[in-house]
Amino acid sequence: MSYPHSSPVSLPEPSVVPIQGLHCGHYFYRWRRDVLAGMEAAAVHAAKAEFSAAIDPLRDARPVRLQSFIVSGHKADFATVMMDPDPLRIDRVHQRIMSSKLGTAIEAVYSFVSMSEISEYLPNKDQYAAKLIRSGEDAQSATFQAKVASYEKRLPAMHAQRIAPEFPLWPAMCFYPMNKVRNVGANWFLEPFSSRTEMMAEHAQSGMAFAGRVTQLVTASVGLDDWEWGVTLWARNPQYLKEIVYTMRFDSASARFGQFGSFYTGYLASAADILDHCCI
Predict the structure, then answer these.
(1) Tens-digit pLDDT profile for residues 71-120
(2) Choosing from 176, 240, 264, 267, which is the catalytic residue?
(3) Hey, which of 15, 33, 110, 198 would disulfide with 28, CB 3.0 to 4.6 Å?
(4) pLDDT tens digits for range 137-167
(5) Is 176 known to be catalytic?
(6) Please, which contacts does 9-17 make with residues 24 or more away whose CB atoms are closer than 8 Å?
(7) Do 70 and 107 share a structural domain?
């Protein structure tokens, strides 16, 4: 469906590159042991190099962010997490994996398509100042002015971390999709913006207690995938994954309004690590 313009406007050129942010792709795979069993050992050995090149392509074909993981549990054996301005550069890695000589022995079991964004609940300078005043700060005090100035300086880095985050080289990762519920009496999208902002601030405060131990990436999938958001957590130790998710479940944003899909837990690994661990 096309929509007529009510008045002449300056429009951007058609492009798959977002005006702001990056595309993000999570891909999860399982080895087909029945197919592997029917392959000659020499053929499998020869195909390993092609698989490694597919999962870790050369720089000219490599997304700007790419990590691979060994996945724990039966839902998948390995995974890739990628970000890039071009969604086809991300999907090309997936296609190279599936079309490699080991591709017939690989089953794609789950994927999640999303984009990075700056949350509407991240306060700008004025909103942060208003929040300080509501909490009892004197707007004329030197302390108030210093806090607002410090926050304003931090904002560009906070925006960058959400739009084009670095992937930490931490060993443990988990991913899960989520929605905000629309139940009668508990419909997130009918809550006043001020109420939603307060709940998200509480949620953020819980997460800040894990600074230095866990880092989080929330990507938006509204209109792109079956869920509304995807949450990727990296941790210095897998125990912190358990602790942060448990802690944040008590926040109203989760306890009243959170709906969660399947969790996938992985451990940072190279293509060679994946092949070795999976006994290929």
Answers:
(1) 999 999 999 999 999 999 999 999 999 999 999 999 999 999 999 998 88
(2) 176
(3) 110
(4) 888 898 888 888 888 888 878 888 889 999 9
(5) yes
(6) 16/86, 16/87, 16/88, 17/85, 17/86
(7) yes
